[in-house]
Specification:
Transferase(Phosphotransferase), domain 1, alpha+beta, globular, 5-stranded antiparallel sheet, Phosphorylase Kinase, domain 1
């Protein structure tokens, strides 16, 4: 792990974008991104470049928040690595482009992760709270069944490898459509794969399922939720534990 200095990790497919850049500050300056204010930990810039459509997320820490990064892998580096890993596991995720960090004596100053945009995507949050604004409807029943089964099996494979996503909130799960074919994407995953859930895999399963329940209860029928549970392989005890967790810690979605 980097202790002091700067570090850039660039995907081989995108090295040309970062030619001549040596630090996160170079990257931020080149594309005019903003450093988040002190009360926030991150800020996101949308970039429409000749090379494509991207999002640049900048993390910055000050005061006591900076101490919490001491000798801990940066969120930006984790998100870059997690996107690669989740793609290997079969999830549809944004393609990672690059990540970088600057550290002083072990503490992260500023860092960034850059990804390709998921084009024409709509968050599940939109369907829950602002469905009238969604540019396309939810899938037809047969397509819903396919998506539910595929996502449940992908999540089960990840959990069987003790890999847990942690943040499948409605704003982080996106839907795209290509004709009558839909796809489910997961974004914003700096906390996926956290080691402590490998030590407590049942708790990791419960948390991930509870975060899905929080919004799936609104968008999916009871029959569809049971279809997901069967495809995932959840027993009644696991479902009850996830429901209790959801009701206690995720009682409602923020509006």
């Amino acid at each position: 792990m980097l202790i002091h200095g700067v570090e850039l990790t660039v995907h081989p497919d995108h090295r040309g974008l970062f030619e001549g850049l040596r630090s996160p500050s170079d990257v931020i300056a080149k594309w005019g991104a903003s450093i988040p204010p002190a009360e926030q930990r991150s800020a996101v810039a949308e970039l429409r470049l000749p090379e494509g459509h991207f999002f640049l997320k900048v993390y910055a820490y000050s005061g006591l928040w900076r101490l919490r990064t001491l000798f801990i892998e940066s969120r930006a580096a984790r998100e870059y690595r997690n996107l690669l890993r989740m793609g290997e596991l079969g999830f549809a995720v944004p393609r990672p482009v690059a990540a970088g960090q600057a550290r002083t004596l072990g503490a992260v100053g500023e860092s960034f992760v850059m990804t390709r945009a998921v084009e024409n995507a709509v968050s599940m949050w939109t369907y829950v709270y602002e469905a009238a604004k969604a540019p396309f409807p939810l899938p037809a029943p047969a397509e819903r069944r396919r998506l539910i089964g595929e996502f449940a099996r992908t999540l089960r494979r990840a959990h069987e490898e003790k890999y847990f996503i942690h943040t499948m909130r409605s704003k982080n799960v996106l839907l795209t459509r290509d004709g009558e074919r839909y796809a489910v994407h997961v974004i914003d995953v700096p906390f996926a794969g956290i080691f402590r859930w490998r030590l407590f895999p049942r708790a990791g399963r419960v948390r991930d399922l509870a975060s899905l329940m929080k919004w799936a209860r609104t968008l999916l029928s009871r029959t569809e939720r049971m279809r997901f549970a069967r495809a995932y392989g959840a027993d009644k005890d696991l479902l009850r534990a996830a429901q209790r967790y959801q009701e206690r810690y995720y009682p409602s979605e923020p509006s």
